[in-house]
Structure formats: C-alpha cells, structure tokens
Amino acid sequence: MMRRFSFAVVVATALWLQQTVETGGKTSVVPSFWSNVTAEFPFLVGLTTGEKDDETNRQTLICSGTLISSTFVLSSAYCTSSLMTTVKSNLDGSSLIAYWKTPRNSVKYHRTISVHPHPLYNKVTRISDLSLVKLKKPFKHVEHFVGLSPRTLKSDVELNCVIVGIGAPHERGYKVPVRVKYGRTACRIPKSNPSLEFVIGYTWADFLCAETIGPGVTRLPCDRSDPLLCSSGRHQYGIFSYGYDGTDASLATIECGDSAVQGRLLFVNRHAGWISDTMTKEGDDDGSWQFGKNGRTTTRHRHTTQPRSTTNSTQAAVPHVTSTARPVRPEIDYPYLVYLEGRFDEPVCGGTLITPWHVLTTAYCTTRMTEIVVTVTAHHRQHANARLVYIHPDFDSYTLTADISIVVLREPLNVIRYAQLPDIISDPINDNSTTKALNCVVVARRWMTPYYITVNVMYGLKACRESFDSEIQTTVNKTWREFICGMPNQELRNDTGDPLICNGFQYGIISHAYRTKMQASETGSIDHQVRFLIVDYHREWIYGVIAADNQIDTNDGSPYAFPRLLISLVLPLLTIVLQLLSQLR
C-alpha cells in the first residue's frame, strides 16, 4: 500500500519511436516499435522545462496536455506546478516549453507565456486539479482540437474509454484502454487506509475512477496529467490526477498501468465554466474554443453552454433531505457518535468520528476543556484519551466563526462506519435568498441518555430569526454564509458539538444559540435560534489536518510513535554512558 497522500510520479518504460526531432533546424532519428498515437489524436501536446537528467540526458519531468484551441492547452495543476518548481525563475509559466508531434513524426516546440491553475486547486486532495496553459503562438497544421463533453453523469455509471499520452519528445505515445466509473462507490478503497476512504468519500463528485482492462496492459505513468478520452476519442472527460493501490497488496505495486492500481481522474465536464471564463479573460485569439463537439480549426464560434450540476456541490442551496423515521439505534444508525468530557467543572460536548483517530467537534468546546476523554455512545462504551487538539486558525470566540476543531486520539476507536461529510454549498447565493425549511435530525447520546430530535433547517441571509440584541443581529448578518439555521428549539440550545444529520450525512455541527425577538404567545417562554456550523464550508482545513497528521504513519494506520520509542531507548543508553564516564574518573 502506498503511503497515505503520497502520490509518486512513476515514469513509463521508454520504448523508442522512429521519429524526426527538429531542434534549431537540426534533425535526429530514433528507432520505432509502435504506431504513432499522436497521428490518431493530433491535439496531444507535451509540456516540459527543457531540463534534462544528467545520466540519461532526457527530460526529468513532462506533462501531457490537450489543445482545446490554437493557443490554450488543458493540463493538471499538480503536474504544471511541479514543472514550474523545477525552474528557478519565471514562476509565471513563461519558462515552460510545449511540444507537438506532426503527422510526419517531427517535433515542434513553442514557448508558453502563462499558466493558470484552477483557483480552488488543493494539492493534498487534488480537488480542481486543473490548469490552462497559454502558448506564445499556435502550432501550425493541427487538424482539430479536443472537444469537451457537456454530458453529466449519474452515480454508478460505467464507460469504456482510453487514456492517452504524448510521451517525451524522443519516446512513443501510448494509449491504454480503461473502464471508467462515476459515483460515491466508484473507487476501490483499501480497508487498511481509513483516511484515504475519508478523502475519496468527500471528493468523489470531482473525480472519475479508472482501471485498466485487457491483457498485457501497458504501464501507465502516474501524475502526467494524461487525458481521458471517451465517445470513441471525440471528447475529453477527464485528466489523470493520481493513482494508488486499490488492494492491500505489495508496496511495490504502484505503476498506474497495473490492474491493481486505482486511477482518479479529474472530471473535466464539471469545470467547463471556469475553462470558458479563463480563456475569455486571457484572450483566445482565434475563438476556436469548442464545448460539446470536436472543433475544427476553421470554426470561429464559441459555445458557452454550462453543464448541468451532477451533485449538490454546485448548487446554491442546501439540497432537499428527509429525516429518518425509525427509532434511533446508535450502534447501527450512528455508530460514529461520541461525546467529549474534560474535568468535572468543564463542559461535555458532542462529536463524530470521521476516522478511527479523528473526532470532529466545535472549537468552542475544545478551547474550554483539558484532559479530554472521548467516549463512543454505542452500548460497548469504548473510550480513548486525546493526544492532540487542532483548533481552526480563524476561530473567533466572539462571533463563533470557524467554530470547528479536530481531536486526535491516542488509540483508535474502531466502529462499523464513520461520519460522512457531503458537499453542500460551494458557490455564493444571493444575499436576499433563503431556502425552504428542510427536515433533518440532531442526534447524540450522553451518559446513556439518547437524543433524537427532528429539526427543520434553513439557509440564507434571512434564514435565522432576528435577535433581540442589535449587536448579535449584526454578527448574524455578517456570518450567515457559515451557518445553517435550525428552527427555534429549546431542546437543542445546550447541545454544542452534536451533529446535524440529513439522509445519513453530517451537514453541520451545533455551534450556538441566541435569544430571538419571538416569544410564545401562550406560554411566554423565551425563544432561541440554533445555528449549525456548515461542515462543508471548512472542508479544505479538515483535509489538511488529517493529511498532516497522517503524513508519517505506521503500517496499522496509527500516528507515528517514533519519538516515544526513541526516548525509551536513548534514556537507558545515556544512563550506561554516564556510569562508564564516572568509572573512568
């Protein structure tokens, strides 16, 4: 199994190709054992820095790309950023070199003038692993550019496609048949790596999952941003982002052409809007950008059709959900529920296990607790001590923005299922809009007392009822984007840290409540508005914490314990040395 979040770059075995390489007017010929893949896919290009390995005299790193217009190349942010870090100057991308292989197997080179990574690209999770590279001038005689499909996919879809790559200038191109799946369960996930399961479960909507098919599979380079072509090669659906061993097999099995390796490819269709906007802003000189068809170079029309959303992540509002009707069964329905206790005079808070080692709760709780003990609410009541507590760096104890915290455990708490965190809101919505009320539940269990409370939630600037305190209301107006509002409920006001569960997913965490202007007409009781912190709003921080905490680990998935072991070995040795020194005196 490869180390968690360690995505190795595996360079393909070079098989020589007879082609003429033109460099500064000179030509050279290398032998060939393969038909010219680039003749079949004339929009393939390569990106490099021109740097060469001292021993092999070959390019140390290349990225595949596709021409989507005469001057724009589509590639991955991970690969292009890796290229630019190898160049000591001109980190804007102007030092990169693009190359294209003609039908007669000659290689043409052009400089690039800029690289535009997707603004939401995350190196740890590879979300939005996409970049656009602008060429200084077009390659001549390109028959056609790649088309990007407007097709959206439903969950559990399977397609037969190919992954293609241009190869280094002196190498052959390659084409590998793959079976592509899309959906929450599309990727194989090894059971021994719960953190990988968490990240894949949280980012599934942005990726396609591919496995090689057929006998004698060609080894496929990882991390080269190779395009995924479907519809008989007419449309590009994805870009190879990274691969990992999908089984619990040998650590040596890491080549992406191996059938055991699961490839994750960025779903390009979901980002067509950003591609179109970036090309418009940067100036697509010939206007040949095509969406939804394989465009010829003579076409001058730009199609700006936006793809329909495939998941809730691109919706402006909280999606419609329904509450669970059956009685609460913590061991089956919510095995990940925990509660946190400190000293006798400190608060007791709710939380959820998102991996065996990580508990999600509020910063308001953990900043007021010491010597934290985490207990599973299920009947077996297993518990573990906290080893480390992460507080969100933007947490404000006054406004309660970024009210989120992750507790790292000393020992794992193994349950049958961990909390799943969906995409809810990614794009800002109109400040005056409010979604309709939705049915969810807040569930917790403390000291053997079960809580299972149905709650209606709303999202938007006007979703929460007005506070009787003008200062509090000002804060609510400024921070509304981070919170879902629960309909006033007396039972929830003190349940800080408990999860908001909708259709089996954790949408939020109870953060706080405030007194509203409303008052029950009959009873005269005080009305309180409950606010749930939106977990999705801070997903990048959650990813980063789990990734950082698991960068160094042991084979069983536990945090690395080397410092403690080192101390236990060094102290006896130090004692012996001191004794010997005293005898020499």
From TrEMBL:
Keywords: Signal
Ranges of biased composition (kind: Polar residues): 312-323
Region (Disordered): 285-323
Pfam family, one: Trypsin
Signal peptide: 1-23
Location of the Peptidase S1 domain: 22-280, 333-547
Coiled-coil regions listed in the entry: none
GO molecular-function terms, A-Z: serine-type endopeptidase activity
Taxonomy, superkingdom: Eukaryota
A GO biological-process term: proteolysis
Gene3D superfamilies linked to this entry: Trypsin-like serine proteases
Entry-linked PANTHER family: PEPTIDASE S1 DOMAIN-CONTAINING PROTEIN, PTHR24260
Protein name: Peptidase S1 domain-containing protein
Organism: Aphis gossypii
